[in-house]
Amino acid sequence: MRRALGGLTTRGRSFVAAGATAIVCAFVLGERDLLRAGVLVLALPLLCTLAVSRTRYRLACARRLDPPRLPVGRESRVDLRLENVSRLPSGLLMVEDRVPYALGGRARFVLDRIEPHGRRELGYRIRSDVRGRYRVGPLTVRLADPFGMVELVRSFSLSDTLTVTPAIVALPTGRLSGAWTGGGDSIARAVSAAGEDDVTPREYRYGDDLRRVHWRSTARHGELMVRREEQHFQSSGTLFLDTRRSAHWGDGPGGSFEQAVSATASVGVHLVRTGMNLRYVTDMGETLPATPSEGAFEGLLLDALAVARRSSSRSLSAGVTALRAGAGGAREGDGLVVAVFGVLSRDEARAVAATRRGAGTSVAVLVEGQHARNAATGDEPAAESAAGLLRAGGWRVVTVRTAAELAGAWGRAGRTGEDFVKGGA
């Protein structure tokens, strides 16, 4: 009852104050008619409070986000289903779904009545121009009496998460020349060179094709042995993002960091969908290891980039170590490296260039700011200085100012021998 009294609306409090005042004046003036009017005015909000507090509605709520993950600037639809699972009809309900301000604010609905075991379908749209992970819900229901004297708030515990990913730029189809390197233990070459007798067999496993039984090895070992099936080559690579605060300029969607995140997402999605097995590395070290499932890694990468923030680190040492581990053979098959940087100093560019070894393809995407200058000279654009050092180390370099320019630069960067592409005006 105390909670219900706390739910009195402005109208309800006004009736209580007016009724109490009338009763006091009736005693002072000795007016019985005024006393009767005061009791009536005071009793009305109290009776409404008692009625609402005694209400025992049993409501069920379900919510669906379509889609639950979307790029910035796109809309998602929220579908709500509110069901009255009790045997009593509901009264006036004010339904409010809590939505973060970045998604457009709260969604409110007024339902006049829900019959026993009836349901109501509600829907609204949300969108965000800022990437991130947002909590939608829980749903709150305000119970009110017909006179508007009292409101009680009841909340569900159910909430859902909407993930707003960076903007993705569609890149030209095709593969980077020299980027596909093989992995696995295929023995096709050994078979063609030495004949079937030199094939290294293994023990039979349940489900193996009996046509692959190697009878000579079976006779030699006394148990069923089968030929090792040829394994397909799996292309793999590394995707790198420089998140250092000191390497990026500007704030908001137009800043270099947001453009770098968008470029990283675009390249990652493009490479994964072409069948490449990627791992994701930042200046803090490896963030996401390679995942065999194409769809799983794409989702994990977009989720990680949706909440990516600038780091306070001022050094690339951890990231360079991770890149060197991939290029140096600690991870077999890391033939392709695509790294997205902000502003690089000469020393940092030399350290990054030294990570390339062997015949693997390395591509650097430099997100250049209009006012980025080399700290050493003060006049040469830092991106051009870093690009020269990276080219000298065998890297292909793409310089852009916005992620939208990456689509035109990517196709030219894929051609053999083209090391530097200048994007923008």
Automatic annotation (TrEMBL):
Pfam families: DUF58. The keyword Lyase does not apply. Keywords: Membrane, Transmembrane, Transmembrane helix. The chain crosses the membrane at residues 12-29, 35-53. Residues 202-356 form the DUF58 domain. InterPro entries: DUF58. It comes from the Bacteria. This is DUF58 domain-containing protein. It comes from Actinomadura syzygii. The lineage of its organism: Bacteria, Bacillati, Actinomycetota, Actinomycetes, Streptosporangiales.
